[in-house]
Write a structure and sequence with these properties.
alpha/beta, Spore Coat Polysaccharide Biosynthesis Protein SpsA, Chain A, UDP N-Acetylglucosamine Acyltransferase, domain 1, 2 domains, 10-stranded parallel β-sheet, 7-stranded mixed β-sheet, binds guanosine-5'-diphosphate-alpha-D-mannose, binds magnesium ion
Length: 371
Amino acid sequence: MPSTQAVILVGGKGTRLRPLTSNRPKPIVPLVDRPFMAYMLEWVASHGITDVIMCCGFLADAMVEEIGDGRRYGLNITWVVEPSPRGTAGALWYAQPHLRDERFLMLNGDVLTDMDLTAQMVAHEQTGAVGTLALVPVEDPTAYGLVRLHPDDSVRGFLEKPTPEQIDTDLISAGAYVLEPSVFDLIPKDRLVSIEREVWPKLVGNGLYGCVHRGRYWMDIGTPQRYLEGTQDILSWRVRTKVAERLRDGPVDPSAVIGEGSVVDRAALVDRDARIGPRVTVGTGSVVGPGAVISENVILENAVVLAGAKVGKDSRLRDCVVGVDAVLGTGVIMSDAAMVGDGAQVGDGNVLSHGMRVGPGATLAPGAVWF
Ligand code: GDD
Ligand code: MG
């Protein structure tokens, strides 16, 4: 397989993940032990991709700082900042000066997956397609692009965000495409163009194929619930990632300190320099980030405590996220996808549930919230 370039679209704002995305773009939201984008980069690199063109809309500086030139991932990353948003197809024009005149990959920048891109590129060559869409089955296709196939895998119909009545297959576009340069002939210049609404429909019957990825992991991590589910799935090895390799040596980093009578589940991570007090349970799907401090008699279940955060004694955290350097007092209860932003201070005895979100740097007086 010759070396391949990949265009990754990271123009979205990620508003549904606030407060995690209040002060950083979604691609660098920490997921388990690395920025979300690292999973995508490690995934593409493992399929022989050498060059990545990252198309960003906003806050590019923070991303460039965190991800850099890609050398760490064995990649060469070119950063393209769009002067004005042009949609999922229009963005390709900004990438075009950096593309060689050969087939390339295009990827939505918001999915956690281990789909077999190599197999998809092989299928693309075999059919002689202009474009080949990665397809995965999902329970509810309404939030995605529905794809109907002919028996030879050519696409019979593409329907972005179908209504329930229109659904007659469970296959959706997974946001990973192999494309020939001739696709540019179908994208008008200098205006907003959606690849899903304007380009795929034109290509149906004219060289658009699907490649079904069965038995592989695929998830859009854009909501708090799915962020937590993704965390759990990475830690339980349900998705092939470099974290799974790291966890082979156990869930506790050698530099972390674990107090007496505390237990850490195998499908959890206590990262470097974290400190866990006595009688703490770090349950399945939980992360205690670098330098985070958990006081005594705390229970974490699918709870993510990011770098430098502090959790007071007798707290109970389930299905929730505590931001970088946030501080929780004694007896705080969090559940149900509640999220506390970076640097927030949550006083003793607060109860945060029902998707409650506390903004970065906010302060809650002791017992202020019971929600
Ligand atoms: N650079 C750039 N510029 N990126 C953009 C722009 C833009 O103008 N508009 C959207 N993006 C990026 C988003 O950041 C995201 O990574 C990707 O393009 C897809 O946009 P979303 O807004 O996340 O779309 P979606 O999730 O509703 O639907 C898309 O993904 C589904 C799979 O998750 C579609 O491609 C569907 O067909 C697909 O099923
Ligand atoms: Mg999306």
